[in-house]
Amino acid sequence: MEDSASAAAAEEKKKNYVLQGRYELGRVLGYGNFGRVHAARDLRTGRGVAVKVVAKDKVERAGMSEQMKREIAVMKMVSHPNIVELHEVMATRSKIYLALELVRGGELFARVSRAGRLREDVARRYFRQLVSAVDFCHGRGVYHRDLKPENLLLDEAGNLKVADFGLSALAGHARPDGLLHTACGTPAYVAPEVLGGGGYDGAKADLWSCGVILYVLLVGALPFQDENLMSMYRKMQRGDFLCPSWISRDARKLIGRLLDPKPSSRITVAGLIESPWFKKTSIPSPPLEPAPPAAARGNGNGNGDDKDEPPEALNAFHLISLSAGFDLSPLFEQEPSSGREARGGAMRFATREPASGVISRLEGLATGGAMRVTKSGARGVRLEGAERGRKGRLAVAAEIFSVAPSVLVVDVKKDGGDTMEYRSFCSEELRPALKDIVWAAAAAADPPGAT
Ligand code: PIT
After folding, report:
1. Is 146 a catalytic residue?
2. What is the maximum alpha-carbon separation in the chain?
3. Which of the listed residues 164, 391, 413 should we mutate to test ligand 1's pocket, taking the one with most ligand atoms within 8 A of CB?
4. Which part of the chain is CATH 1.10.510.10?
5. Which CATH superfamily is 108-279 part of?
6. Residue nearest ligand 1's atom 8 by CA
7. Which residues are near ligand 1 (CB < 6 Å)?
8. Residue 52 CA to ligand 1 centre (angstroms)
């Protein structure tokens, strides 16, 4: 009996790997509501896709079956260049599979958290794409209700794609008062009227979240933050937030109009599109022009618009000698503006240690931390935690590339588990363990932004 159960489980596992003979599932890209999202390959076309795997029993236990059906219905309705496309839905007895557009550039959240904050022209480009997607949804009676940088993905060309409609609502679900009544979303991004519980207009609530997102892009912090949810809610109700002095006047005005606690006077999409900050045309900086040194970059010109981020246009050898070891990512990015921040907490460092030495360091680190090690070829290693964390087991994948004779670059990525756990693993364990093999050029100045 038990044997046949485990054989069935093994069979299910195999089936999952090549899903219904059509999709070959690969690494975990992230976690949506109710399931993991895997990178996958469509075996019929060879095309890359993302497959979200949802366990039916989990959805049922949480009483979210209707919401799941709504997510699928919504995604079928919203085909737009800035929304992750749903290609196909499949199901087995126990699981639902959504085959989605593959978006490879990671979360916008990762780009912002690594850069600290974005230049206004860079933020404006993302924000326009977000508003285009949001306006498109609203025009079809779809309200996302969980807009936040973690649900905004970037493709390889640096275009924004809205994901995760798992909490979305349709206009048809409003009560007779014309308002939605389900409080959902992520507190820091959710409009005060949603938390208030008295019914809300889905479009106005999404615009508030757009205001929080714009603030996060430009400031690198949340506008309303408090350990105590009630105090945070009170700050939101009062519109009590501060804009740092580097934010331009137009951006500040727009943020104020989006973070208006009264939905009736809050700006509409039509007003937003006509606002000076949104409309501003910016002249893109010339590509491959090395930026002046930090001291000459004039930090603080008062209006805060179009400030420089750290230069990213140096060549491979500059970067190796200047980087003091970690984070050489501009070396490999094909699209300069998609930059190193798009890589979701990924870490890169140069070393003169041979590949075998790097691998044995990683193996030593794994053994010390009771992690499981698997090698893939001569240049790949994966470490997996023994214990399940907040989002499953932490898994870290390292790949080794040769960039010059006797110079290797090691690329480290999260391959499973929670992003915060991954970050603390990197800073508390990985970095210290590798410190002495990371190649830091003697007496070379750190480039701006290097750690
Ligand atoms: C990708 C890459 C990635 C995440 C996703 C897609 C997720 C997409 C998604 C998840 C949902 C949903 C709609 C889209 O409702 O890292 O290509 O739960």
Report:
1. yes
2. 74
3. 164
4. 108-279
5. Transferase(Phosphotransferase) domain 1 (1.10.510.10)
6. 163
7. 29-30, 32-33, 37, 50, 52, 71, 75, 84, 100-103, 153, 163-166
8. 7
Tell me the whole-structure pTM to 2 decimals. 0.63
**What pLDDT is stored for residue 157 in this prediction?**
93
Atom 10 of ligand 1: nearest residue by CA position: 164
Q: Which atom of ligand 1 is nearest to the CA of 165?
A: 15
Q: Do 127 and 272 form a contact (C-beta atoms < 8 A)?
A: no
**Ligand 1: distance of its center to the CA of 163 in Å?**
5
Q: How many residues comprise the chain?
A: 451
Both tokens of residue 57?
A: 């029993």
| pLDDT for the residue 332 | 36
Closest atom of ligand 1 relative to the 102 alpha carbon: 17
Contact between residue 278 and residue 211 where contact means Cβ atoms under 8 Å apart? no
Q: Where exactly does CATH 3.30.310.80 map onto the chain?
A: 294-443
Where in the chain is CATH 3.30.200.20?
14-101
Which of 42, 135, 146, 164 is an active site residue?
Answer: 146
CATH topology for the 14-101 domain = Phosphorylase Kinase; domain 1 (3.30.200)
Place of tokens 């093999």: 437
**Do residues 57 and 94 make contact, with C-beta atoms less than 8 angstroms apart?**
yes
Q: What is the pLDDT of residue 335?
A: 35
Q: Which residue spans within 289-431 are E strands per DSSP?
A: 347-351, 372-376, 380-389, 392-404, 407-416
- 294-443 — its CATH code? 3.30.310.80
Strands 152-154, 142-143: parallel, antiparallel or unpaired by DSSP?
unpaired
Query: From the first residue on, what is the mean pLDDT of each consecutive set of 10 residues in the chain (451 residues)?
Result: 60 66 92 84 95 92 87 91 96 94 92 91 97 95 89 94 84 83 82 88 96 96 89 93 94 98 97 96 51 34 39 34 42 36 62 81 82 82 86 88 69 87 84 76 33 33
